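Methods — Computational structure assignment.
A single polypeptide chain was analysed. Its primary sequence is given first, followed by the predicted tertiary structure written as structure tokens.
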Amino acid sequence: MKRVLLFLATCTILISCKTEVTSENEAVNRSGQKKPFDYVNTFIGTAPLTNPDSIGYTPPRDWRVWAGLTFPGSSLPNAMVQLSPITKFGSGAGYEYEDNQIIAFTHTNKGHWNLCNIPVLPVSENATYPFKSSFDHQNESAAPGYYQVKLDDYGINVELTSTLRAGYHKYQFQENAEKQIVFKLGEANNRVNNWNIEQVSENEVSGIQDMGGDKIYFHAILNGPIEELRRVQENEDQKAYALIKLGNSPSEVTMKIGLSFVSAENAKENLTKEIGDKTFDEVREEAQNVWTPILNGIVVDRGTEKQKQLFYSSLYRTFLWPALRSDVNNDFAGPGNQKMNRGHRFYTNPSLWDTYRNKLVMMEIFQPEVTADIIKSLIVRGEEKGFIPTFFHGDHAASFITGSYLRGIKDFDVDKAYEFLLNNAYEEGGTRPHIKEYIEKGYISDADVEKAHTETKSNAGVSKTLEYSYDDYSLAQLAEKMNDQEHYDDLMQRSQNFEYVFDKQTNFMRGRLENGEWITPFDSEYPYYEYMYREANAWQVSFFAPHDMPKLVELYGGNNAFEKKLDSLFTVKWNPQHIARNVSSFIGQYCIGNQPDHEAPFSYYFIDKPGKSQAILDTILNDFYGIGDSGLALPGMDDAGEMSAWYVMTAGGLYSFSATDPEYLVTVPIFDEVTWNLPNGNSLNIKHSEGRNLEKIQLNGKQLDGYFLSHDELENGGTLMLETN
């Protein structure tokens, strides 16, 4: 805390030199020069956050704080197949670094306690239920598109690689060993309603795992004959599974497996088209060739090995989600599992509450075609009920779709998207709960609850009001482009609704009752999951008005009062008695480990003191990522790449403070030089002088007015020179 106070006083910071942690499997190219691909460590985010000093409190017994929840296995960007080891079902991504047993390799992932479908495990002759093997991290390695581990109990070396819709397994059994593969089809992170597997040829099986909502089909081809396929149904003592016993086959067993959310026939076609007769090494090399240009999208110069590892590992995780759900022929399972085909790739819904801030903006910059198809996928889902779907909280499809459009992504039905987003903003029964009250009063109330606690159920009215205000602003920008003046005026007026939950007496965003009274008693430091706030306390949401920061500064009483309050955010010590599993890692009251206050450290820019922001940002970048005994822990849940994207944009010098607006707040990169290589062939080179306090910004020799770089300026490229002291 003294260090942070010193930073705030001096507005300067030195990058701390920490011990460099480099995974043993990092490759070096033939020239001896490591490339971006070589810096990716897919294990970052899999280790637990255990130190109370890092967490901010002592976790209750048997708790694993929701930090990281990433998976180390093989995946291409936005792939259907994400093939990874599982150490525990129901544990987010399924892989927990502290565990020492692998129970399966599954073919779907994300890190949100769902998926982890089609679990398989090679086993030896005498293996019995529950089928698991110990392993050692010394005999484990990974890279983008590849994973390897030695199953010690069975004496089997496993290698995995993948394409968009298919996985490739390679098992090295001991010489003359009996070779078996278990399909644990009764298990997944979701409840399995039904499953089946059938042998369809001498060396092929097809099947399904039915979750009730999703139905995941598979088709697998082995390099040797199947001697026996035995099904064991679920009982009181064990989960259902199928056991394949291989006959006369080589000690190196390969299994190619295709997935589909439509049919087993499509799964086979996916497998045939994407892998076919290719060797394991050919598929692995293709995976590297897919990842290389994405990782080369931002090139950094100098910095420590640890910083480069964190940067490129974060860049890698930024592009794993949303996930593809259509087949090579563009078939997909639409609403109600209806087979559909619209001639474009179909994707899962983005994790909008988390990822609209930075991760989706990175996608808009580097993957415009993928972005357009994801918006088309949202529109398809919207056609069922007339609303664009959201994720978890807020209505941030408004920000995502508008921000994409303003960045030049227009290859989607804008009229239909706009129609559905208007329904979101005005109609009951859709994406925005409590929209009638919000329209009538300008805010969303919460119940009068005596002795409210962290898990009290209510409306999260303050968070919803703040988020709807921003969503209204976002939709207003699209209304302007659609020449809809009436809705533009109304939505812009509604975008000021954040004022209705600002209590000038306490200087906090504060919950209100249905009658308009402030909720009492009021503790600004107490965290709630959905009472007044969503996964936050009053401190953590009280600086959220990214669309109108001048108005927010005015509400606090001007620059000096705002600065004093913002200083307090980073200096009022977190109470270690306040415990919420996914609210962790603090500087003062500021929570690094969750998204609701991710924009707050940048707020000093709006009172013309960027150096104070940079001091906090540098502390976060250097002291809160890649932490713990293994150097693999994150300060909070990666949330489908949002924690990672925050790191990339902040460390890389361009932060999307308001994701809707096609502009980026310029920060001082932690590297001497950063080059953004854009899909149009242009590059923006960011350089800075010594020091961390930003004084002036020059683009191609001309001084910028203010601290923002427009998206057009980014795409035009050139040199961005930052004068610092």
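Note: The longest helix spans residues 461-481.
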